[in-house]
Write a structure and sequence with these properties.
With 110 residues, this protein is of the alpha+beta class. The chain contains two helices and eight strands; from the N terminus they run H-H-E-E-E-E-E-E-E-E. It has helices at residues 2-16, 25-31, and strands spanning 32-34, 41-46, 56-62, 68-70, 77-81, 92-94, 98-100, 104-109.
């Protein structure tokens, strides 16, 4: 049940954000930027070209068997998904470095 709720939350977030549903290849290339991070795959999406309410979305994924540090771009971020919960609505807020648990992801927006 927990996994099902988590996936439902991710689907709801994707449905609410056109930046995650871009179909124009050129727009995707302009909007998507990798972020520097050791042992974490992370990228920033510019939501403005797609008309998204969020001007920035950050997605970070830890595919390692051990916890990994991740520092999002400076500033305050609303958390939409972490290792425990995913939602179309913010579930928290951060403003600095975090530790991603093993095999987890983090979705942020502002």
């Amino acid at each position: 049940r927990e996994v099902e709720d988590y996936v439902r939350g991710l689907i709801a977030f994707r449905k609410d954000h056109p930046a995650l549903r871009m179909t124009d290849d050129a727009m995707v290339r302009r909007s998507l930027r990798p972020l520097p991070a050791d042992h974490v795959i992370a990228w920033r999406i510019d939501g403005r070209p797609s008309g998204d309410d969020l001007r920035e979305i950050v997605i970070a994924a830890n595919g390692e068997a051990s916890p990994q540090p991740f520092e999002p771009p400076r500033g305050r971020w609303k958390v939409y998904a972490d290792a425990e919960v995913a939602s179309a609505e913010p579930v928290g807020e951060i403003g600095g470095a975090v530790t991603l648990p093993p095999y987890s992801m983090l979705v942020l927006g502002r």
